[in-house]
Specification:
Order of helices and strands: HHHHHEEHHH
Structural class: mainly alpha
Shape: globular
Low-confidence stretches: none
Helix content: over 70%
CATH topology of the largest domain: Arc Repressor Mutant, subunit A
CATH class of the largest domain: Mainly Alpha
Distance between the termini: 31 Å
Radius of gyration: 19 Å
CATH superfamily of the largest domain: Winged helix-like DNA-binding domain superfamily/Winged helix DNA-binding domain
Number of strands: 2
Strand content: 5-15%
Length: about 140
Amino acid sequence: MTASRSRRMDPLTIEVVELIGGVVARYHQEYEEAAARHRLTGAQARVLSLLTLEPLPMRQIAQRLKCEPSNITGIVDRLEARGLVERQPSPGDRRVKVAVPTAEGIQVARGLRDSLDFAREPLAGLSHEERTAFRDMLRRMLGTD
């Protein structure tokens, strides 16, 4: 048996992977329900939340959400029709349009974030040091540390 196969068969690793999967599934379920309460799809909510961090061109939104740029165009169109997002010329290159949340879009995104209790409540039970260690482990797992 190879070393990589023995790691995959390790009961602790299997349990950790299953627990991560359970956390992700519960988070997505709650996220979809919270989005629906704001009359958004999950994808629209994710784009709107991302844009509250910084205005982005469609291609960068697609890269960050790991989807096709053509999908993002449709999502931004629908958010724009609701008055939650607007397209503006990029300050660095006026030929490029960036999606920017409106004041209402920022308010909706804030309400969406505030309604996500699943992750916030259990994390609040951890000390600052535990949350920092957990964050650092997740970054390491994702290769972003």
